[in-house]
Structures are given as C-alpha cells and as structure tokens.
Amino acid sequence: MDCIFCKIVAGDIPSTKVYEDDTVLAFRDINPQAPTHILVIPKEHIANGAADITADNAAVVGHIFEIIAKLAKEEGLSDFRVVTNNGEGAGQTVPHLHFHLLGGRTLGVEMG
Ligand code: 5GP
Ligand code: ZN
Asked: Measured in angstroms, how far is the CA atom of residue 94 from the centroid of ligand 1?
C-alpha cells in the first residue's frame, strides 16, 4: 500500500520512534511545529482520518489517548495540544489516521 505511515510502521521508512506496541506507534514529526511534535498513529491503516472512525475501529483511538497522556508526561508537558486534521481543507496531508501531540512552547489560542 502506498501510504507513508504504513511504510513507517513496516520500517521501510525510518522514523524516530518514541513508543510502540501491538496496535499503536508514536514517532517524532519530520517537520516539527513545536519543541515536542509527536505523531501517534494506529498501526492499522485507518483511512482517511477521523471521519472514518467507527464502532469497529474506535478502541485503538482510546488507546492512542492513553499513550498521548503517557508521552506528554515523559516530555514534561503540562500544557499541550492534540490535533487531528481531517481533509485537505483542514491541512491533512497523510490519509492514515494520526494525532499530533504538540507542546513545549506557548500555543496560540486560535484553533483555526
Ligand atoms: P497532516 O498534515 O496530515 O495532519 O500531518 C502529517 C504530518 O506528517 C506532517 O506534520 C508531516 O510533517 C509529517 N510527515 C510527513 N511525512 C513524514 C515522514 O516521512 N516522517 C515523519 N516523521 N513525519 C512525516
Ligand atoms: Zn497507512
């Protein structure tokens, strides 16, 4: 499958991994927008994004948020933001569900 994140999961594209288990992978964003910018993804190719979360695949999303809380602690972040972009118009460039964990600087109050 021609998906950058599936290739990262498979190890075909290198990444700086910060967490991995059977269902979830977290790695540092290649173009960080903040001192901490980690991508947390299901290993399963959930295409395209948040719009495709269903009763059948939602369990991993809860697990992803557990991992985000753990990573935020490890990064020393009390203040942080979690973002998922759905659709090109919202800034999505990779059509494999992923959550951005951003922190380590003052984050703007504007959401959009
Ligand atoms: P999106 O724009 O879809 O919400 O987020 C995709 C993110 O993936 C972007 O922040 C981009 O910098 C990151 N990204 C794209 N390709 C790679 C890659 O090959 N390695 C890593 N570590 N991050 C990537
Ligand atoms: Zn994928």
From this structure: 7
57 token code pair: 């695949």
pTM of the model: 0.98
- Point out the ligand nearest to the CA of residue 49: 1
* pLDDT tens-place string over residues 22-54: 999 999 999 999 999 999 999 999 999 999 999
Closest CA to 98 of 55, 37, 56: 37
Q: Do residues 97 and 54 lie in contact, with contact meaning Cβ atoms separated by under 8 Å? A: no
Note whether 46 and 57 are within 8 A (CB).
Answer: yes
C-alpha 85/C-alpha 62 separation (Å) is: 17
Give the phi and the psi of residue 39 in degrees, each rounded to 5. Answer: -100, 130
* Catalytic status, residue 98: yes
